[in-house]
Each structure stands twice: as structure tokens, then as C-alpha cells.
Design a protein that fits this description.
Layout: E1 2-3, E2 11-13, E3 20-22, E4 28-37, E5 41-49, E6 53-54, E7 58-60, E8 64-75, E9 78-81, E10 84-88, E11 92-94, E12 96-98, E13 102-108, E14 119-122, E15 130-132, E16 135-142, E17 147-153, E18 158-161, E19 168-174, E20 177-179, E21 182-184, E22 189-192, E23 198-202, E24 207-213
Antiparallel strand pairs: 1-4, 2-22, 3-4, 4-5, 5-13, 6-12, 7-11, 8-9, 8-10, 8-12, 8-13, 10-14, 15-16, 16-17, 17-24, 18-23, 19-22, 19-24, 20-21, 20-23
């Protein structure tokens, strides 16, 4: 399966473009934002669990990155409400479920083999935030290949880069971003190729943005 698989092209998906499809597991649906492969894929998705749903234990050969957007996500006996960020390294396994229902932003098969340690960050905790360049930043992950953070922006704050080495990917978690004559509303996902620029303005106070940079030039883990 190939969905938005040309990483030299910019892609924007808004809430109006969402097309929910059933996963192999009853009660769990997905919006496929980009995808190369079948169930073992390099993929970026929104994933929705109905209450009292679960996946059997399974492994992620290329790792898994999760941002909990709504509700409560669980792994085993650990619960992660909205705002938690998780990284499960290549070769790790888990048994995800949700008693209350949840919506997630999920990236599969996009980690290098050098990543070996699980990561859990609660972005609700004030100590995980710092002020930087007129906005609040919650650093989530950084390596030689990529940088991941959450940005909390007040109305009028700028997010500008003339040329992005390794590209960038944004998900608007709350609020909106203005780009020229376009308004990207909550839930919009934007992927910008390497070498292209970005110029966004926060449209309202407390706009919250997931930002990942530098990863679109990296050789990814080979999937089976």
C-alpha cells in the first residue's frame, strides 16, 4: 500500500480530509496520512480506539512513536492520558489497549537501529517546558537525525525556517496556524520536504503544535 509515499512532495491533510478505515482489530480505526507497506509498514496515522478495545501483543521491527491526543491509552498496567509522548524502539513489543477510548498520532517504522531505549514524557508537567524565542517548547526527542518537540504559541507568534534540512512534519493539536491566505485548523497534518521552507503564524493563543524536523532524509530501519 502506498499513501503519500513521495517524500519530495509537500502534503497537507485537514480534518475535512480524514478517511477513517478499520484496522484488523475490531473497534480500532485509522486515518492513514502516509504509508509504505501493509500491516508491517513505514506509516504515519491517526488511530482511534473505542472504549474497551485492545490489540494483541505485537512487535514493531522499525519502532513506534505515539502522541496521545485524546482519552487514555494504556500498555499493560500503565495508563497514559492525553499529552503523553511515547517512543518504543525497534524490536520492542507491547500490548496496547484503552478502557476509556483514545485517539493517537502514531508513526511506525521510522526509527534508526541506534535507538534502543524506550522513552516516556508527560507534556502536561510544567517542568518539561521552557521558554525559547517567544514561545514555550516541550522537547520530546533529539538525535543526530531528528528533533521532536511540542510548541505552545500565542496569537501572532511566528514559526519560520527559510530552508529545512531533512524536512519537517507538523500536527496542529490545538488552535490553528495561518500560512499566507490559508488557515490550518486543529487536526491538520503538514509534511514539508527537505530543502523547502515554512512560514506560519499562530492564529489564536495557546496554539499547540507537534513539530518533527530533520527526519525525511534519514535511511529508515528495513521492515520485513
Amino acid at each position: 500500500m502506498l499513501i503519500n509515499h513521495d517524500f519530495t512532495r509537500r502534503v497537507t491533510v485537514s480534518c475535512d480530509d480524514y478517511y477513517w478505515v478499520h484496522s484488523p482489530q475490531t473497534g480500532i480505526d485509522r486515518v492513514m496520512l502516509d504509508r509504505i507497506g501493509g500491516e508491517q509498514a513505514r506509516a504515519t496515522s491517526l488511530v482511534r480506539y473505542l472504549p474497551q478495545t485492545s490489540f494483541p501483543e505485537h512487535q514493531h521491527p522499525g519502532g513506534e512513536e505515539i502522541l496521545v491526543l485524546e482519552g487514555q491509552f494504556s500498555e499493560g498496567n500503565r495508563d497514559y492520558p492525553a499529552g503523553w509522548y511515547l517512543r518504543n524502539p525497534p524490536g520492542s513489543s507491547h500490548q496496547p489497549h484503552s478502557n476509556k477510548g483514545t485517539q493517537l498520532f502514531v508513526k511506525l517504522g521510522q526509527m534508526t537501529k541506534r535507538e534502543t531505549v524506550p522513552l516516556r514524557i508527560d507534556s502536561r508537567a510544567p517542568e518539561n517546558w521552557r521558554e525559547d524565542g517567544g514561545m514555550s517548547v516541550c522537547p520530546l526527542f533529539e538525535s543526530a537525525e531528528e528533533r521532536v518537540c511540542l510548541l505552545r504559541m500565542d496569537s501572532g507568534s511566528l514559526l519560520v525556517a527559510p530552508s529545512l534540512k531533512g524536512g519537517a512534519e507538523l500536527l496542529i493539536v490545538e488552535g490553528n496556524l495561518i500560512e499566507g491566505n490559508s488557515i490550518h485548523a486543529k487536526g491538520s497534518w503538514i509534511r514539508i520536504p527537505s530543502g523547502h521552507g515554512m512560514a506560519f503564524i499562530a492564529g489564536i493563543d495557546k496554539t499547540l503544535v507537534y513539530l518533527k524536523e530533520g527526519h525525511l532524509d534519514v535511511e529508515q530501519v528495513t521492515l520485513p
